[in-house]
Amino acid sequence: MTTRLNNALTKLYKAFHNNELHPECCKKCAVGNICDNTDTWKHLTDVHGSVKLNYVGLVNQNFGKRIHGYTPLELLQIEAEFLKGCGYSGPIDRYCKKPKDPTQTDNLFNGLCAVVAYLCKLDHIPNVMDYTKLFEVENNQPKYELV
Questions:
Q1: Which domain holds residue 82?
Q2: Span 67-111, pLDDT tens digits
Q3: E-strand spans in the chain?
Q4: Between β-strands 137-138 and 141-142, what pairing exists: parallel, antiparallel or unpaired?
Q5: Digit-coded pLDDT (tens) for 25-72
Q6: Is residue 147 part of a domain?
Q7: CA-based nearest residue to 38, from 50, 26, 30
Q8: Distance between CA atoms of 6 and 104, rounded to whole angstroms?
């Protein structure tokens, strides 16, 4: 596991279990937590949840800036995955479909599952939340043992 992935997962895990996740707050969303509960990342785009970099975002992306190990574009994609997983239809604006209770545990968990899958994909490792191997069988016996 890469350092950036380990750091991100640790922060997201703590935020989830400490009830410090909120999809509509730039400091408490997935990327806000990855960025140590700062909202500086929000200046990379004009709309929360958009994957379109604005001028500031493009400059930082083109100069190779990394924020907590992630490029500006990767951060925007992480947040978009989180919002989609939480039940939003797109960037947060007056037209987007929103969940009735954005901080409902199931919504947040689904959002985090989407984020973890994307973070693992970025680092070219299998999804650490994939539990399907636990149910694989060979000759009517579990293929893998629980450790």
A1: 3-142
A2: 999 999 999 999 999 999 999 999 999 899 999 999 999 999 999
A3: 137-138, 141-142
A4: antiparallel
A5: 999 999 999 999 999 999 999 999 999 999 999 999 999 999 999 999
A6: no
A7: 26
A8: 25
Instruction: Dig out the tokens for 46 from the structure.
Output: 């004009």
The whole-angstrom separation of Cα 118 and Cα 124 is 10
Is residue 109, in this structure, part of any structural domain at all?
yes
Provide the whole-model pTM.
Answer: 0.90
* 20 has pLDDT over 70: yes
Domain-located, residue 68: yes
Distance separating alpha carbons of residues 134 and 144, to the nearest angstrom: 6
**What six digits make up the tokens of 14?**
């703590």
Q: Is 30 domain-assigned?
A: yes
What torsion, rounded to 10 degrees, do the Cα atoms 62, 68, 74, 76 define? -100
Domain count, the chain: 1
Q: How far apart are alpha carbons 41 and 144 in whole angstroms?
A: 41
